Amino acid sequence: MALPINIQQLISGKTVEWDRIEFKKGWNPEEIIQTVCAFANDINNWGGGYVIVGIGENDGIPVLPPVGLQQNSLDTIQKELTNLCHHIEPYPQIISEPVLFQDKYIFIIWVPGGSMRPYKAPTTLGKKGRSAIIYATVQRLKSLIR
Q1: Which helix (H) or strand (E) holds 24?
Q2: What is the pTM of this model?
Q3: Which CATH architecture has domain 7-145?
Q4: Which of 19, 62, 92, 138 is buried deepest, with most CB atoms within 10 A?
């Protein structure tokens, strides 16, 4: 399934709020899993968010031209993303797509706000990883209910 947005508009910030976009210069599984989980929790009900891998940022502004990703790494990244999402409870729905942008490959992940909140992801992918709710707001709300 294709992404439901124009890539040029997404990166230039003319379509969605900046709070819904995370730019990642490179593929870092621990950062990616945390961001996917946070967007799935979608505490403000903004429709989730986009993770754009292969473009750095400076104070939230994309640094262009993109750093990009090696074309031969894209299949591995897609497989690793699927495996990462199996560590999130419950499993989030995502749509991802490698894209050629300004002659560099980038990888875009759209994470719609989930319907089975709260989502939990491990704080680390190491052996001692433990699940934690990503949004502190959700934790605070739970403490207020008690």
Answers
A1: strand 21-24
A2: 0.81
A3: 2-Layer Sandwich (3.30)
A4: 92
